[in-house]
């Protein structure tokens, strides 16, 4: 396998076969220009994807391979991670489809760990039909956090809007029990590092949303903001991490206040994702920050109701590909600068002044 320096090997897990995952993947690579700066390898089965391609009357060429050593730069590679046929029934919640989705995902994560692929983009799964004795995780992020080095943090991205989650897939009535100064510190340090190395922001400003309505109104509506959040943010700020808040969540986005910050951290899932998805209009990306490896995904689900009809919008998946590639390049630059900042600066000065 010969790899061009500028051509990133893009691993893709196929998601739920009865959903829109395969459709948005193939639609993204209908544009052959995508292959000029990345080489995709879809972890699935070439016959299965050929069926989807034919059903949706798509024209992209698929290149089936049985090992990553056979990968060809500039083609849409499909690694056959299973051999047996699967009868796709679009829109159906099927346990077998869930197991194929997880096989695709776990094989792609293994390839990411081994360095056979540079970045990973995951298509949507169904959190119900993926469960088994071998896979007992509520979703992608939790498995990635276990398998890859670092501390995973869900960060939703759309251009300059970045919304991270302090807690993610836990019930609302358990949020308060999970809220500690240690957790806030860990997540804030993670997002601060991510903004620097992955988004090329030298001095990031981070906003934290209050846990309770009106950030607790000085303890009248809950004490978590005063007793946990504020002390944690104060210590971080004193250490040079530019964190601000807690801010009242009900008006923070509607007033445009979020535009003053490089990232916003929400206390729990819906507090962050409802305003994010309202503002991003289907172009958002889910980025797993805090890991040594790079993983993104579209911000939508399996969309069974439109699966197989050719109606799926692939923009969010395409943006997930773009973000993965951007982060890959930003990390390369950050790593080089971190090695010898003086040398990099000298090169920049030479280029600027001749």
Q: Quick check: average pLDDT?
A: 90
**Relative helix content:** 25-40%
**What percentage of amino acids are in beta strands?**
15-25%
Ranges where pLDDT stays below 50 over 5 or more residues in a row are: 1-5
Which structural class best describes the helix and strand composition?
A: alpha/beta
Radius of gyration based on Cα positions: 21 Å
Number of strands: 12
**Biggest β-sheet strands, sense, barrel:** 12 strands, mixed
Global morphology: globular
Strand order of the largest sheet: 3-4-2-1-5-12-11-6-7-10-8-9
- Helix tally? 11
How far apart the termini lie comes to 39 Å
What is the H-and-E element order?
Answer: EHEHEEHEHEEHHEHEHEHEEHH
Structure in a nutshell:
The protein is of the alpha/beta class and 354 residues long.
Commentary on this structure:
The protein is of the alpha/beta class and 354 residues long. It has helices spanning 21-28, 46-55, 95-114, 140-147, 175-178, 181-197, 224-238, 249-252, 269-280, 315-339, 341-353; strands spanning 8-13, 38-44, 62-65, 76-80, 119-122, 150-158, 161-165, 206-209, 243-247, 263-266, 285-291, 295-298. The protein has 11 helices and 12 strands. It has a 12-stranded mixed β-sheet, with helices on both faces. Strand 8, helix 7 and strand 9 (243-247) form a beta-alpha-beta unit. Helix 6 (181-197) packs across helix 7 and helix 10 packs across helix 11 (341-353). The longest helix is centred in the last third of the chain and has 25 residues, at 315-339. The radius of gyration is 21 Å and the shape is globular. Mean pLDDT is 90; it is low at 1-5.
């Amino acid at each position: 396998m010969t790899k061009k320096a500028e051509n990133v090997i893009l691993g893709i897990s196929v998601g739920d076969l009865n959903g829109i995952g395969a459709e948005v993947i193939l639609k993204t690579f209908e544009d052959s220009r995508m292959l000029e700066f990345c080489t995709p390898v879809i972890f699935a089965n070439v016959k299965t994807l050929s069926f989807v391609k034919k059903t949706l009357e798509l024209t992209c060429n698929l290149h089936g391979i049985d090992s990553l050593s056979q990968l060809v730069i500039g083609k849409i590679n499909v690694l056959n991670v299973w051999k047996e046929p699967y009868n796709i029934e679009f829109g159906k919640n099927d346990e077998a489809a869930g197991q194929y989705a997880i096989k695709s995902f776990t094989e792609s994560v293994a390839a990411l760990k081994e360095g056979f692929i540079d970045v990973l983009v995951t298509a949507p799964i169904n959190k119900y039909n993926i469960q088994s004795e071998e896979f007992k995780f509520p979703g992608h992020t939790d498995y990635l956090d276990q398998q890859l080095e670092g501390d995973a943090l869900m960060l939703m991205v759309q251009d300059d809007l970045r919304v991270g989650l302090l807690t993610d897939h836990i019930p609302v009535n358990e949020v308060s029990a999970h809220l500690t100064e240690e957790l806030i510190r860990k997540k804030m340090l993670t997002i601060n590092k991510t903004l620097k190395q992955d988004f090329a922001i030298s001095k990031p400003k981070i906003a934290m949303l209050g846990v309770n309505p009106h950030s607790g109104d000085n303890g009248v509506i809950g004490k978590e903001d005063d007793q946990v959040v504020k002390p944690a943010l104060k210590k971080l700020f004193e250490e040079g991490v530019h964190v601000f808040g807690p801010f009242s969540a009900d008006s923070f986005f509607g007033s445009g206040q979020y535009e003053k910050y490089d990232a916003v951290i929400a206390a729990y899932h819906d507090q962050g994702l409802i305003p994010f998805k309202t503002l991003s209009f289907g172009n958002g990306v889910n980025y797993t920050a805090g890991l040594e490896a790079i993983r993104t995904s579209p911000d939508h689900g399996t969309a069974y109701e439109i699966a197989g009809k050719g109606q799926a919008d692939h923009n969010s998946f395409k943006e997930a590909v773009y973000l993965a590639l951007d982060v890959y390049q930003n990390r390369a630059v950050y790593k080089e600068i971190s090695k010898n900042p003086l040398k990099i600066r000298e090169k920049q000065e030479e280029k600027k002044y001749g």
